[in-house]
Structure formats: structure tokens, C-alpha cells
Specification:
Elements: E1 36-37, H1 49-58, H2 71-81, E2 88-91, H3 93-105, E3 111-115, H4 121-128, E4 132-136, H5 145-151, E5 156-162, H6 174-182, E6 189-193, H7 209-213, E7 218-223, E8 236-239, H8 242-251, H9 259-270, H10 272-295, E9 307-311, H11 320-328, E10 332-333, E11 335-336, E12 345-349, H12 353-366
Parallel strand pairs: 1-10, 3-4, 3-5, 5-6, 6-7
Antiparallel strand pairs: 2-8, 7-8, 9-12, 11-12
């Protein structure tokens, strides 16, 4: 006879129900006309016309399985960056690759380090692997190398670093990233999430390619969701040492990237002119938004990505929450970042010229600083 104390339904592994599910930015606003979604860091330029064409052409052979090794896409990425294609793994967005790395290198009794305003997926994949996330304080919205190194224990197996970081838009210079890596034990996997790297034009920035090429414990992840405008297709890649590639390839799904995503990705990465145009647009409007919003008296921390933070006062009627509601009524959807420990801020994606100008005008109206006609 079955033990009456036994549960009556399947139970998840310990800790799973303690995970707070990731919630993305809102995509709609009720009761408004045209909506401007500026909450998910999507490209206002959209994808390359060549990527659209390749995606459409893939529809002619939907009955066929994709190339499980993503060989042509890996070769295209390798050709673009001068890499060894054998050290590249493609995935369903960089998020899948982060999850696979956590699954492979973390377990019960292990720890993974991330910074306090880092991507929310890091603690999720850490807990899902049965390990404990260790969240380290930042310094002025920047990752603090010394604080990270001080948090390392014998249990540490992974260090996550978003560079540039979402949602702060800050970055660590290459010298500081190298200093961080030099301070880690060789058995700790150092994961550099460079999802926004294509937007950075600072001379002291390096996405992580050189460090991966010269190390045995560094992985760089990248995405096609941002500057390439392929967020809907869920496509990402990682560059890693051969032994890490071997491990991830053993546990990833055999056909984890669809044919439409593969074909669009190949076309996208070859269209360097479209990427250059997207970067030029972002450089212009990121600078403009920072200057114009700062003129309104709001704090706008420096950003090198395709978004910026706006810090609001605590005064009743002028808070981030108040601003969010005000903007929503005008069809302008920004991202609340309270879940990132920044309740007084909203994150604004650099949008089209029309959207950017409307946001500034709406913020001026919200703050009572609209120009009199």
C-alpha cells in the first residue's frame, strides 16, 4: 500500500519554486493610438533586408530539419570576426547558451557571482542548476572588480559579467576585465555576456574575443536580437575554449536553431552596411536623448549601449512610477527596472527619430517644462 505521506503529484527539484520567473518589458498600452515600444532594447532599424529575404526563402523547405551543427552560420560568424568556427556554438538566443553553461558547470553546493544590477537571467539559471547566486554590489552603477574578487569562495564556479551591462548601460574597460580574469582561479568559468558590444565605440573596450582566445576558462556570448534586429527568431552564439564547446555540444538540443533563424543570421552578419547604419543611428540619438533629457533636470547615467537609464526624483507625482503611467497613456512604453534594484529609474530604448522626440516632449510635459507655443 502506498505511503499516505507521499505527494499526489510530481514535484520539481528543490529550489525551483523559489525562482522568480523572468518578466520582460511590456509590449502594449491600452486606450492609446499609436504605440512606441521602447522597453526591450529592440533595434528601430529592424533587420537587414537581406535577412528578411533569407527568412522568407527558408519557408520553401520547412519540412527539412536544420543543420544541427549550424555549420554555415558558424563559418559566417568566424569569417566576420576572424575566429575558429570550431570554437563557436549557436543557440536559441544567448539565453539558451547561458542556461546550458550553468547546467554544465554548476550544481548543488556551488556558487555563481553576478553584480547587483546585472541581467536577471543569471540568478535564474544559477538556481535552476541547483547552485546559489552571489550578488555583488556595484560602484556607481559599474561592476566593481575588487568586490567581485572579494566575493569569490571555494564554492565559486562561475562569474557572470554583462559588458556592457543591462540595464545600466555601463561597461568595464578591457584592462579591468583582464584584471578581473587574472584574479580568478583557473577552475572558475568567466562568462562575458557581450549582447550589446556592437554598439560600443570606446577605444578601451573589448568584447572578450581576445581573452577567450588566450584563456582556458573564458566564454563570450553574443546575440542577434539587438543590433541585427532578429529578436523574434531567438538566435545567439558563444565563443569558447574547445573543451567548453565540447561540453555544451553534448547537452544542447540536436536541432536547437531553426532553419529560418540560421538563414537570416547568415545574411544579417554578412550585411555589415546595415550594422554600420544601425550603429550610426544609435550614436546620434543616444547622445541626443542623453543631452535633452538631462536638460529637463533628470539624471541620465552615461550609457554605451542602445538604451539609457533615467533617474526620477522621489517627490510625489514626479516618481519613476508616475512617469511610467504618464508615458503609457501617450503610447510610450518604457521599462520599469524596479526588479533590477532601481525603483527610481526607467530604462529607455533608443528608438526612431519620431519616438525619441515624442519621449522628450512627453517628459517635458510630465515635469511641467513643456515649451509654450
Amino acid at each position: 500500500m502506498a505511503n499516505k505521506a507521499m505527494t499526489t503529484r510530481p514535484q520539481p527539484q528543490p529550489g525551483i519554486l523559489e525562482i522568480e520567473a523572468y518578466v520582460g518589458g511590456r509590449a502594449s498600452a491600452e486606450g492609446t493610438g499609436k504605440v512606441y515600444k521602447l522597453s526591450a532594447n529592440e533595434s528601430p532599424m529592424g533587420p537587414s533586408p537581406h535577412a528578411r529575404k533569407a527568412f522568407a526563402s527558408a519557408g520553401e523547405s520547412l519540412e527539412l530539419y536544420p543543420d544541427g551543427g549550424a555549420s554555415e552560420l558558424r563559418e559566417a560568424i568566424a569569417g566576420r570576426y576572424g575566429l575558429n568556427a570550431e570554437r563557436i556554438v549557436c543557440g536559441s538566443g544567448s539565453g539558451e547558451l547561458l542556461q546550458l553553461l550553468a547546467q554544465a558547470y554548476l550544481g548543488e553546493g556551488n556558487e555563481a557571482i553576478a553584480t547587483e544590477h546585472g541581467f536577471l537571467l543569471y540568478p535564474i539559471v544559477t538556481k535552476a542548476a541547483g547552485a546559489a547566486p552571489v550578488i555583488v554590489k556595484e560602484k556607481n552603477l559599474h561592476a566593481d572588480v575588487d568586490a567581485i574578487l572579494a566575493a569569490v569562495t571555494p564554492k565559486t564556479k562561475i562569474v557572470f559579467l554583462a559588458n556592457p551591462n543591462n540595464p545600466t548601460g555601463s561597461y568595464l574597460p578591457a584592462e579591468e576585465v583582464r584584471r578581473l580574469h587574472a584574479g580568478l582561479r583557473p577552475d572558475i568559468l568567466f562568462i562575458i555576456d557581450a549582447a550589446y558590444s556592437e554598439y560600443v565605440s570606446r577605444n578601451d573596450y573589448e568584447a572578450g574575443i581576445e581573452l577567450v582566445a588566450t584563456s582556458e576558462n573564458v566564454v563570450m556570448t553574443r546575440t542577434f536580437s539587438k543590433i541585427y534586429g532578429l529578436a523574434a527568431l531567438r538566435l545567439g552564439w558563444m565563443y569558447a575554449p574547445a573543451h567548453v564547446v565540447d561540453v555544451v555540444n553534448r547537452i544542447r538540443g540536436p536541432f536547437n536553431v531553426s532553419v529560418p533563424a540560421l538563414q537570416a543570421g547568415i545574411a544579417a552578419i554578412r550585411d555589415t552596411a546595415h550594422v554600420d547604419a544601425a550603429r550610426t543611428h544609435n550614436d546620434k540619438w543616444l547622445s541626443w536623448l542623453t543631452e535633452e533629457i538631462s536638460k529637463l533636470g533628470l539624471e541620465v547615467p552615461s550609457s554605451v549601449a542602445n538604451f539609457l537609464l533615467i533617474r526620477f526624483p522621489s517627490e510625489k507625482g514626479k516618481t519613476a512610477r508616475d512617469a511610467d503611467a504618464f508615458l503609457m497613456k501617450r503610447g510610450l512604453i518604457l521599462r520599469s527596472v524596479a526588479s533590477y534594484g532601481l525603483p527610481d529609474c526607467l530604462r529607455l530604448t533608443v528608438g526612431s527619430e519620431e519616438a525619441n522626440r515624442l519621449v522628450v516632449a512627453a517628459l517635458a510635459e510630465f515635469l511641467g517644462k513643456a515649451k509654450k507655443s
